[in-house]
Each structure stands twice: as structure tokens, then as C-alpha cells.
Amino acid sequence: MQYRSSGRLGVMVSEIGLGCWQLGAADWGDVPEPRAMEEAKICLQHADCDSLQIIFNIFRQKPIDELFAEAKEKGVAIIVRLPLASGLLAGTYKRDTAFAASDHRNYNRNGEKFNVGETFAGLEFARGVELADRIRAWVPSGPSMAEFAIRWILDHDAVTSVIPGASKPQQAISNARPSDLAPLPANVHKELRELYAAEIAASIRGPY
User: Fold this and answer.
1) Per-residue buried b or exposed e for 17-49, using 16+ beta carbons within 10 Å of the residue's own CB
2) Is the backbone of residue 153 left (phi > 0), alpha (psi -120 to 50) or beta?
3) Could you give the CA distance from residue 4 to residue 72 in angstroms, rounded to a whole number?
4) Which pLDDT tens digit goes with each residue over 80-109?
5) Which of 55, 65, 107, 150 is the most exposed place for a label (fewest CB within 10 A)?
6) Closest CA relative to residue 136, chosen from 120, 122, 124, 152
7) Cα(106)–Cα(203) distance, rounded to whole angstroms?
8) DSSP code of 165?
9) What's the average model confidence in pLDDT over 105-126?
10) pLDDT of residue 125
11) Global pTM exceeds 0.90
12) Four-CA torsion 150, 154, 160, 162, nearest 10 degrees
């Protein structure tokens, strides 16, 4: 696990943390407490750390281009939450994938209960599945699509830490791997940025 500075706070933090929305909340289905505790222990083991930082989400971010340069200039740490777009970028969903009644990916699919951007990053689900299938073409042999997505985020040097969630211990282990992967090639970043500008940005519903 690699570490990065948290800016003017002067604290070194792991590049990958554990997003905890799914632990103890009904919004992701049922995650029993023993499994949640196991995930937390596994994360500490893979981060090879002697302390634990608990970071609370305070506000949602502006679009990337408006934020990164300003954050770097002011020494502000950026913690990226929901990096897999509520699971879309794991690349395993199909158009007919169903979620539990208590899962926000079911009852908030179109922003019925809270900010539509919290679920599937504001994409309509079928459109998100289609785009994820296309993005898979850029995933190299070896890493999973989820690991590829997290590595893409870490390639932005303004990012301090990424906090993907996990509903199973094995997911927590997999989420930690991108910290030790090589950066993605420049041409992959260019092609993904072009895809975003041409076909994704206009599909995002609701505020960031």
C-alpha cells in the first residue's frame, strides 16, 4: 500500500481506504456486523498501518476540472468516494440485474429518495451498464475492471485517497491492489476522457 500526504494537514494517509456507507446501513442490503468487522480488520492488515483515521464526508465535489488545480494550490486533501459508481464500474451488472428492496440501487435508482448522483453517479442504469461494457475494452490483462477504475483515479496526483466500499472481505482485498499497480498509459487516459466528454457527461442526471 502506498501513502500520500493529506496536504496542509500534514498527515500521511493510505491511497486506498474503506468506504463505510454499506456497513451498518440498510441502503446496500444486509451486511452483518461480523462481516463488517472482518472487512475493517482486513483493510488494516493490507494498509500495513499502526493507526486508523476516520474521515467523515462533509460535502460533494465540484467537477474534476474545476477542483483539482485549486485543491493542489491550497493544499486541500481530496477523498474520492463511490469510485465504482455504486458498482457499475465493477463491470458485472447486466440490464436485468435486480437489487434488494432496501438497497438504494433499487429505491433510489432515479433519485426518488435523495440526490440522484449518489446512485450510479447520476447515470440512468441501462445507460451505465452499456458504458461500463464499452470501458471494459481498455482494461488490461490482469487487473479486474474495478481495480482498473480505482487505478485511474489514483493516477490523478491531486487525489489523496480513494474509499471504495465492500460488502465482502474479498472485495476489500481486491480494492487495495490498485495502490501497487503501475499508472495507466497516457493514451488510455486520453481515450477515456474523450469518451466522457462525448457520451457520458450529457447522460449524467441531477447535481454533483
Assistant:
1) bbbbbbbeeebbbebeeeebeebbebbeebbee
2) alpha
3) 13
4) 989 999 999 999 999 999 998 888 999 998
5) 65
6) 152
7) 19
8) B
9) 90
10) 95
11) no
12) 0
